[in-house]
Design a protein that fits this description.
- There is one protein chain.
- The protein is built from 13 helices and ten strands.
- The protein is α+β, with helices and mostly antiparallel strands.
- A hairpin with a 4-residue loop joins strand 3 and strand 4.
- The two termini are 34 Å apart.
- This is Protein-arginine kinase.
- Its EC number is 2.7.14.1.
- GO terms for molecular function: protein arginine kinase activity.
- Belongs to the ATP:guanido phosphotransferase family.
Length: 357
């Protein structure tokens, strides 16, 4: 695995795999926050200390005998701004790490399923990603990385509070689990605001595609736990999974209701969106996301049969501003990005049509 491959292949290998409930749950993610006991937390850590943390963790995670597989280190603070943006758009690093002033790094597995961020808000952020609804599998993989580190370093840990983190909301297990869900049925039936309110009361939070502060483009929502203290890791995972299964059931019921009530109007909406994507010469991110959501709904409902179901996830990433500019090889003005986005989508749809002729 090379940096060039990571930058030039927008779709991570793990995204090409199938997972449970993948018609609604696009991906599952588990993230563990950890800090080393003998170092100041990153917000107050000088550059020499941050470099020591980096080198210590690198030595452990890149040991040739490590059972989790080979991890490649990328020094984020040595990347160009556009390269950092690409890693954020691929969900491999956080915006906070992309802005790290020094000694920021991530260690990536070959399939980009494991990303260990170093010197972000905490010394260590272990992230594991899986397709579909696979929260338990993501937790098991994250714990294997965590166990490896904990057998070699001493974490900042309190017998009563648990793992100590820079942000008080992460104290305890340090676990943030989330699922990315495509919920056009609940949006179209006007139920999403009610769902969000109910979810918040259960100690969960609903965000956009890139987490806190981001918009829910293309009817894609990220649902995650808020509570990390007072619950075990397994309880957090099971509580989130239980809520997600209920949302899946309601989303499917909403889709069936729309299909029965709207009939030709829904089919018209889907094919109009397909027509826009297949013929546009300029398209902004928000419009592309909306049209892609309609097309994915059409695939799931059986209206569109010649496209693969993962086209929403694939094109949502491929058409992000940073990745478009990475492919171009130079900075693009907004209208140039809109033009390239339109061209890329047309070419991708044409490829699918030719493949299925």
């Amino acid at each position: 695995m090379s940096l060039d491959r990571i930058m030039n292949e927008a779709i991570s290998p793990w995204m090409k795999e199938h997972g449970p409930e993948e018609d609604i749950v696009l991906s599952s993610r588990v993230r563990l926050a950890r800090n080393l006991k003998r170092y100041t937390f990153p917000a107050f850590l000088a550059e020499d200390g941050a470099l020591k943390v980096l080198h210590e963790l690198q030595g452990i995670l890149q040991d040739e005998h490590v059972k989790i597989g080979k991890l490649q280190m990328i020094r984020v603070d040595e990347l160009q701004p556009l390269q950092r943006r690409v890693l954020v758009e691929k969900h491999l690093i956080s915006p906070d790490l992309a802005a790290a002033p020094f000694a920021g790094a991530c260690l990536l597995s070959e399939n980009e399923q494991i990303s260990v961020m170093i010197n972000e808000e905490d010394h260590i952020r272990i992230q594991c990603l899986f397709p579909g609804l696979q929260l338990k599998e993501a937790l098991d993989l994250a714990n294997s990385v965590d166990d490896l580190l904990e057998s070699n370093v001493e974490y900042a840990f309190d017998e009563h509070l648990g793992y100590l983190t820079s942000c008080p909301t992460n104290v305890g297990t340090g676990l943030r689990a989330s699922v990315m869900m495509h919920l056009p049925g609940l949006v179209l039936t006007g139920q999403m605001s009610r769902i969000v309110t109910a979810i918040n009361k259960l100690g969960l939070v609903v965000r956009g595609i890139y987490g806190e502060g981001s918009d829910a483009l293309g009817n894609i929502f990220q649902i995650s736990n808020q509570t990390t203290l007072g619950k075990s890791e397994n309880d957090i995972i099971e509580d989130l999974r239980s809520v997600v299964l209920q949302i899946i059931e309601q989303e499917r019921a909403s889709r069936d209701a729309i299909a029965k009530a709207s009939g030709i109007r829904l089919e018209d909406k889907i094919y109009r969106s397909y027509g826009v994507l297949a013929n546009c010469r300029l398209i902004e991110s928000a419009e592309a996301a909306s049209c892609l959501s309609d097309v994915r709904l059409g695939i799931d409902l059986g209206y569109i049969k010649h496209l693969s179901g993962n086209i929403l996830t694939e094109l949502m990433i491929l058409t992000q501003p940073g990745i478009l500019q990475q492919y171009a090889g130079f900075p693009l003005r907004p209208e140039e990005r809109d033009q390239r986005r339109a061209s890329l989508i047309r070419e991708r749809l044409q490829f699918e049509e030719n493949k299925n002729m």
